[in-house]
Amino acid sequence: MRDHDAQRVGGLARRLTSILVARGQDPSTPPSEVSEPLPALRAAEARIPARYRSAFADHPAISAWVREIAEAGRPGPGGAPGIAQGRSLLIVGTTGTGKTHQAYGAVRSLVSAGVRLRWKATTAADLYAELRPRPGHDGERELLDLARCPLLIVDDLGAARNSEWTEEITMRLINRRYNEMLPTLLTTNLGMADLREHIGDRVASRLTEMTDKVILDGPDRRRALAAERQRLAAIHA
């Protein structure tokens, strides 16, 4: 660390004032107040489930992924970067280790970094339920929209009941995103061997190449929080 020579306060103040005046700035103008949260962040948080609206991606690998995606974005209107292409993440962990929290935290981090972001989020079970053929519903159009979305979150991959139809839907979705190299955040409770058995070899092979695996361990945070609430309630009873 470099140490700077000390200066008397009066002389330093006069020097700073002259610098500001030379730059056309009025030194008597009070500093602006801290700006409010970005409108884009407020808009993103409105679409995030209430439980995860303050989620924060603090896992080192996920923070590094956010930086990589933000730096690789293409400049758009106003110069703000937009998601182009990039690696995907497979977030693996047992129930309650914070997988969904980290995924939504990554979205908030990208928006906070100024990235123009069109994104969608779904669970695997909701995905299949929404795309299941039924009268008056264009499942093909919705599948294509998900496949083209710049950033997609698929939560709880492998948790829904498996069938040839669900395996085909998963394959079509992942294959399109694999080919276009679109960032995808996937969470699962399953190890790779069990996941491969559930979603099929073709999907698992693509996930192996397109994703970086992030493993979350530790106790079930939901149960830990419930136990803490019970403890505090007993103390104040």
TrEMBL record:
Highest taxon, organism lineage: Bacteria
A Pfam short name: IstB_IS21
InterPro entries from the UniProt entry: AAA+_ATPase (IPR003593), IstB_ATP-bd (IPR002611), P-loop_NTPase (IPR027417)
Protein name: AAA+ ATPase domain-containing protein
Residue ranges annotated for the AAA+ ATPase domain, each copy included: 85-221
PANTHER family in the cross-refs: ATP-BINDING PROTEIN RV3427C IN INSERTION SEQUENCE-RELATED, CHROMOSOMAL REPLICATION INITIATOR PROTEIN DNAA
Organism: Streptomyces polychromogenes
